[in-house]
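hey so i finaly got around to running the thing on Anaerobic selenocysteine-containing dehydrogenase from Thiomonas bhubaneswarensis. pasting the sequence first so u can double check i didnt mess up the copy paste, my clipboard has been acting weird all day
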Amino acid sequence: MTETILAAVPSDGLVRAACPHDCPDTCALLVTVKDGVAVSVRGDPDHPTTHGALCAKVSRYTERTYHPDRLLQPLKRTGPKGNGQFTPVSWDEALDDIAARLKTIAARDPQAILPYSYGGTLGFVQGESMAARFFHKLGASLLDRTICSTAGEAGLNAVIGGKLGMDVEQFEHSKLILIWGSNSITSNLHFWTYAQRAKRQGAKLVCIDPWRNDTAEKCHEHVQLRPGTDAALAYALMHELITHDWLDHDYIEQYTVGFAALRERALQWPPERAAAVCGVPVEQIRQLARDYGTLSPAAIRMNYGLQRVRGGANAVRAIACLPSLVGAWRHDAGGLLMSSSNHFKADGAALERPDLLAGRKPRTLNMVTLGDDLLRSSSPAFGPKIEALIVYNSNPMAVAPEGNKVREGFARDDLFTVVLEHFQTDTADYADYVLPATTQLEHLDVHKSYGHRYWLANNAAVAPLGQAKPNTEIFRLLAARMGFADPCFAENDEQIAAQTIAADVRNGDIAWARLKTEGWAKLPGATAPFARGGFPTPSGRCEFWSQRELDAGRDPLPEVILPYESEETAPELAARYPLAMISPPARNFLNSTFVNVDSLRQLEGEPALLIHPDDAARRGLADGQMVRTFNDRGAALSRARISTRTRPGQIVGLGLWWRKLSPDGQNVNALTHQRLTDLGAGPCFYDCLVEVAPA
Ligand SMILES: Nc1nc2c(c(=O)[nH]1)N[C@H]1C(S)=C(S)[C@@H](COP(=O)(O)OP(=O)(O)OC[C@H]3O[C@@H](n4cnc5c(=O)[nH]c(N)nc54)[C@H](O)[C@@H]3O)O[C@H]1N2
Ligand SMILES: Nc1nc2c(c(=O)[nH]1)N[C@H]1C(S)=C(S)[C@@H](COP(=O)(O)OP(=O)(O)OC[C@H]3O[C@@H](n4cnc5c(=O)[nH]c(N)nc54)[C@H](O)[C@@H]3O)O[C@H]1N2
Ligand SMILES: [Mo]
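ok and heres what it spat out for the 3d tokens, dont ask me to read them lol
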């Protein structure tokens, strides 16, 4: 770096920042500021995984921050819920009224108040710090934040003991890379750089995905399996590794438990059986096993796409067994990466202060079942009816499953809703008060990553726009009005940031004071975490067979669990709704964020639905025609794209459109259901039967 990096909120200069979005890449940013305005955001060329490149979305971050629709003052609803009529009010008026309402409800039972938040920012400061303290002190219902990754997490925990794995920077040295349940070019672009380098050095790339996404197009091989059948595929691979003796017996002996039992189960899964379940050619499974058993180092980039189905956690469990069988973990460039989260240690207790509950044990509600829960009355089993909802860092009206129920819940006249937002989202339209929040360019934060091993600092580049305030400040002001006097409510963002990075061997000597000037710092620790075992499981080994699972009354081995909604498991439903729908992200959106940035929405055009030519012909659909996708839960309009990139019997509805920017005020979540995964209580977005007809 030759340019001087200035401290927070300069009028001119270059500011070190971090991308806040819910993406494994967590890029290091450099923000150029002129006359107090952020004029450009670019990737830090010196940060190894960012290497100076940003995705199309975040390179337009200034377009989002200075968008003419930014919310710049508190708003109070004046029309019916959902129709977007609001009037500006002062901060004092809004906060006084909100505090009064919350006090009244809390006097009856604070559990009738529910926070709802997720991945708008992954920063520790603007995420669950002051907000969590506020809700803990209040004694509000707790929220189980399950909407993305908890099934996969449970699967990894069972086998390898945590969200740990390969260093992404090592993938360029791999000889075989399985990209499993991940559209890297869309959702993990900076990993793709390493995969391409490996490819240039002769590595073989295989994509395992129900549709030929942009990543599959560029891999050597595409295993186009039916959604929710990954565990069967993994078992067939194990079958072949075992019968051909492509095993690392020494690694298995020293560092694993339960091989004999796993072997017995795997031998029940010859490739022919898996081929029928997965809907892929048997020869392709055999070849994949041969590659995995003979090319070394072999690496798996597994991601969250495969765990959004009923058997999602067990699929992750089955796949997580593979690297130990072949001893791939011995190599820096071998093993598996799903999430690097647990390589880091954040001080959750200091940030969130669960001690403020002071012995109270509020109920916990799962964010996936928001639709049902908003419609429940008080009962001994459920507890009090939800009377107030405080939403921040999330857009549940677009992202939560079974959207019609979510809407019905939000529309309740007896529900008091506050939404902290940058924009007037679908969710904000249902708020009683909308409070304007700052963006990443206007506030301070500290970030870890779930795809690499660097801590990052985000310095504020510019002053808050209009009357916008950071989430922390909004909860600080509310806390004062509620009469919460604990000293932690007076801490500023700088103090919170300084508490985030726990004093822990995992973080080495990384501390906030240096991080904020240097921008990023890599964790210490071995590149290959399990080269000599050391799995953080109860046995200290890779647990093919899990005593914990057995004790919990479940299968001690990874189990093949087919989707809730499939021909085999729900034949009557499949007769009416024969098409399996998956709804992964569109490349130019980040969940529902960026849908309102015109230049990005223009790149996506309209909600698109990929349908196989055979299925289109059977329904008399033409390419480019508006179609209606429907099931018993709802319907949504989209533009048909007839394509062999999807399988017969399977459609791909790219997400996640704002409802009000879609043709019919709906999106893919009109169709999805609220049932939970096998472990981890996650959502089953990609486990969903539908039918399609001309609109
Ligand atoms: N551009 C962009 N980037 C993003 C996001 C975004 O919305 N847009 N979202 C971010 C977030 S929050 C997350 S969690 C990650 C998500 O990114 P990933 O973890 O990669 O997950 P998905 O994008 O949900 O799905 C990835 C792939 O899995 C496939 N898939 C679906 N069902 C199955 C299955 O049963 N088996 C297998 N093998 N594959 C399946 C999908 O078709 C898709 O191509 O990306 C982050 N990055
Ligand atoms: N059908 C289907 N549904 C899905 C998925 C899918 O693949 N298919 N993906 C799921 C996944 S993986 C995830 S992670 C969830 C994501 O669900 P959410 O976490 O709700 O993600 P976003 O839609 O990006 O909404 C985040 C909102 O937070 C706001 N925000 C950002 N920063 C701040 C801030 O600093 N302060 C405040 N107050 N607000 C802020 C943004 O403006 C945005 O409106 O969606 C899930 N839903
Ligand atoms: Mo996610």
